[in-house]
Amino acid sequence: MCWWALPLPPPPPLHRRDAARKQKQTQRRQQRTEHASIGRNKYPPRAVFPSSSSSSFQTVTEEVVVVDEKLTVHICRPKSEDAVIEYYIEKKQLDADPYWAALWPSARALSAHLAHMHFDDEEEATEHSHGGFSIRGKTVAELGCGLGLVGITLAKLGAKSVTLFDREPLCLECANRSAELNDVESIVKTEVLDWNAPADKNKLNNFDILVAADVLYERHAVEPVSEFCSNFVKANGGQVFIADPPLRAPQNRERFKKMMVEEKQTKLVSEKRKKHLLDEVLVLELMRL
């Protein structure tokens, strides 16, 4: 009799199959956690809220390689995005934004792009006694910072000061922890800011560089974002870098560019597509006139 004609063995009992499935799920979960939390033994998880709170959730430290062999940033983030959503629901904060809890491709790509620009110009300055784009000594603002990867990257590259703005206090808690993990807490400060509110006059024309990732996906955000970009950044050379997925709401990005160039005394310097793993990100560079 041929082997393919032999009767199949009976399936294992249900309880064994369930146990095997649960074991595989546990193994996969552990692998994902270990992969996302490199350096976790050095920087153990800690609760954002007091452990006595029923709504507390744990954070983990993710090691982000910004530039191979040159720059790594440690980011404190929630262990589970679902836990953040559940917290907001429990607190009846239904208008809160839970999407800050993830490290998105736009922030990763923008961090890498700026770091490469900085390193390239540092090398050029060494060879030719002059440099172009450099972070050293600059004042930086990150608008809608989320976990603050871009701003903390620039702090590690030598920025004089970095201010992280976001409307969600929870993400700023994580950003403050990340600043400590990267030894830049003396450089980085955080501030709650809703870009729909009037700009603080004390911050007008106060920053050399403004960076932002994933801030143009909603139509109503275009005008206030352009307003803050033009008001916060110094005239005569202040720089703005915006990163966004190229296929998501391109009409918002076009409207933003038009508004900046025609109404905000700003010129478009470049528009470059960058790759992060399988994701493509568009990076805009603008300069105040």
Automatic annotation (TrEMBL):
Signal peptide: none
Record protein name field: Uncharacterized protein
InterPro entries linked to this entry: Methyltransf_16 (IPR019410), SAM-dependent_MTases_sf (IPR029063)
Region (Disordered): 6-53
Top-level taxon: Eukaryota
PANTHER family: HEPATOCELLULAR CARCINOMA-ASSOCIATED ANTIGEN, PROTEIN-LYSINE METHYLTRANSFERASE C42C1.13
